[in-house]
Amino acid sequence: MRATLSEPLEHPAKAVRCTACQHYCTIREGQSGVCGVRLNKQGELHLLVYGKASAVNIDPIEKKPLFHFLPGSKIFSIGTVGCNFSCSFCQNWDLSQAAKEVKLRMLRGRQEQREGEHDSRASKQEHPTTSIRDMAAEIGKFGIELAPQRIVELCLEQHIPSIAYTYNEPAIFAEYAHDTAKLAKQHGIRNVFVSNGYESHELLDHIGPYLDAMNIDLKGSDQFYQQLCHARQAPVLKTIHDAHARGIWIEVTTLVIPGKNTGDLAAIARHIASVSRDIPWHVTAFRPDYKLLDAPATTQEELLDAYATGKRAGLRFVYVGNIIDTKHSSTLCPACAKMLVERAGHAVKVTDGQDSTLLRKGVCSCGEKIPGVWQ
Ligand code: SF4
After folding, report:
1. Which residue's CA is the closest to the ligand 1 atom numbered 1?
2. DSSP secondary structure, 139-188, as one string
3. Global pTM?
């Protein structure tokens, strides 16, 4: 499938620039970008995972996590393979890093082939074509065929009110997400990105009109991003600001990794509060995974410290996650402290009665407006 979020470059010949995320990769013919799923075939960028869902589930919306968006509802969740980050602590690394593994294998194979050849001219001309075909075929093996039309049909059949583009970074499968989201919107189904926040402004322009909510990770300081994710912090801050300014409902998540980003939490909370004190902040517990096996799991005490940090920064809604703690994961009215949504794990109860003013009007019974999308 041709990737529309791209533009041709004059040099080198047949190179393109991908405009889906803030890496803005320059991609030569026969090569793919950092994410491994956007491939330049003869001067045109192609999305190798269009219509190929590698993870499909119907999840509680609280699992995204989104706490101020249709509480207690189900969300149809899809993801592909590939990612534009390489986080050493990734909890979905089997999906996110799969395309890079294929790419590395292909590059190693190409290198070995080159080293073994002496008659260069004819054989070198064959390499790009062979590699492109092999790589497209390899990446295409991941996942099941799931067209945008079918995703929307499934939601309608099962009365599921929203779709999450999640598990891996949705910016890299932008065109697949866009076509699904546009169709979903026509049928009254909401769309949610669960994202690392590296969307380009071109992508936000393209898909923004169909996006209702985003949960964006804000992982740590710029140094943290460089050392553990091979990315930078500034583009993420920009996306949080820009998406919020576009009227997309935003919640932010920080995985609290002891000794790695605990010193960054106050600055993270202050940044969120500078965009809006109404943005919910989820501080979630880390468990050793993938390549980051030497950092300890987050304790409840460390999570509660993070919670207190968010409150001190002026955030009105801070939630702990990946542990069961009803007190610090429920929604209370910031004005009168009435319990509005009680959460125990993924069990959710809207507690302001059957005739809920929260669900009907987005307000507490005391009249305080509770920010979010409630119906
Ligand atoms: S989505 Fe991002 S990482 Fe992937 S090719 Fe485009 S600019 Fe590069």
Report:
1. 172
2. HHTSSEE--HHHHHHHHHHTT--EEEE-SS-GGGGHHHHHHHHHHHHHTT
3. 0.90
